[in-house]
Design a protein that fits this description.
Blueprint: H1 3-6, H2 11-25, H3 30-41, H4 47-59, H5 64-87, E1 92-93, E2 96-97, H6 99-125, H7 129-153, H8 160-184, H9 190-216, H10 227-230, H11 236-243, H12 247-259, H13 264-277, H14 279-298, H15 305-319
Antiparallel strand pairs: 1-2
């Protein structure tokens, strides 16, 4: 199912959201307004706002608070992307120049801070304290996940449980927060909200594993990238491969990652090692298991158009080609 078909039940909401989001980013400072206008122009697929609206609609009727939730989620997500580009020295994002490429690091960091503050104030100014709590916890978890990954990357000894801890915090926490936040604007039942949080968490983990698979190339993804290897990130296919090889081979591969991650041939050797080890098959099964767990939670809700779109969106997330 295409993204346009998935969006069908929330088409009107997404159109209105565009206006809400632009308003939330406005500033009387000309430079800031110029940068935020550039950000709005290069927006991505906006999957997180889609999760907000679909989860709200699954619980009942979309409210004004649902628009606050979607804007808050997108503001925080954008802030983290702007900061990530500074940390990673990335000069491109989604085929556009990054903020730090055009306006340098200092301005990019300040813009990220501004977006974060705007998001938090949006919740406060509208008395949406539950939203503030949900999203503030996500921001804390994302920071912890990034720092945990940086700490462990130095040693290259990440086990599966640590890997899952990192991606749950770094990636899945915001998708979980988006789902919970959307539901919280319609329902006050804590048991229901917890269900939505766990639903989003499973999707977020599956989403990150899908990203891991892109790096090694598969039959349906195409040419391997090796970006994670160059950045010395321990992903699930690589962790599995290293856990299931001999001591000498493990030592050799870790040495390549640690000391030769800029050498194309050495990176290709690591990719080939992972592909031949069954690491991709193992990671794909893990991704499907998390997706199926998300479906089990989804199936406990009443069947309607929003539920079907959420199911299709989960499939889209795990089957996407980029």
């Amino acid at each position: 199912m295409s993204l346009n078909t998935i969006k069908h039940p929330i088409e009107e909401e997404l159109k209105l959201f565009e206006t809400h989001f632009k308003e939330a980013m406005k500033s009387p400072v000309p430079l800031l307004d110029k940068v935020t206008h550039y950000i709005v122009r290069r927006k991505g697929k906006q999957m997180r706002p889609m999760f907000v609206f679909l989860c709200a609609k699954l619980c009942g009727k979309v409210t004004e608070a649902s628009f606050h939730a979607a804007s808050l989620v997108e503001l925080l997500h954008t802030a983290t992307l702007v900061h990530d580009d500074v940390v990673d020295d990335a000069y491109e994002r989604r085929g556009f120049f990054s903020i730090n490429a055009l306006w340098k690091n200092k301005i990019a960091v300040l813009v990220g801070d501004y977006l974060l503050a705007q998001g938090l104030l949006l919740a406060l100014d509208n008395g949406e304290f539950k939203l503030l709590q949900i999203l503030s916890r996500a921001v804390r978890a994302m920071s912890e996940g990034e720092l945990l990954q940086l700490e462990k990357a130095r040693r290259l000894d990440i086990k599966e449980n640590i890997y899952y801890d990192i991606i749950e915090k770094k990636t899945a926490s915001l998708i979980a927060a988006a789902c919970m936040a959307g539901a919280s604007t319609v329902s006050k039942d804590e048991t229901v909200l917890e269900k939505f949080y766990n639903f989003g968490l499973k999707i977020g983990i599956a989403f990150q594993i899908r990203d891991d698979l892109f790096d090694f190339g598969t039959d349906d993804v195409g040419k391997p990238l090796g970006i994670d290897i160059k950045e010395k990130k321990m992903t699930l296919p690589l962790i599995y491969a290293l856990e299931n090889t001999t001591g000498s081979k493990r030592k050799h591969i870790i040495n390549l990652i640690k000391n030769h991650s800029e050498d194309k041939e050495k990176v290709a050797e690591v990719i080939e090692f992972v592909r031949n080890s069954g690491g991709l098959k193992y990671a794909k099964k893990a991704m499907c298991d998390y997706r199926d767990s998300a479906f089990e939670i989804l199936d406990t809700f009443e069947d309607n158009e929003a539920r079907e779109s959420l199911r299709a969106l989960v499939n889209y997330v795990t089957e996407r080609k980029k």
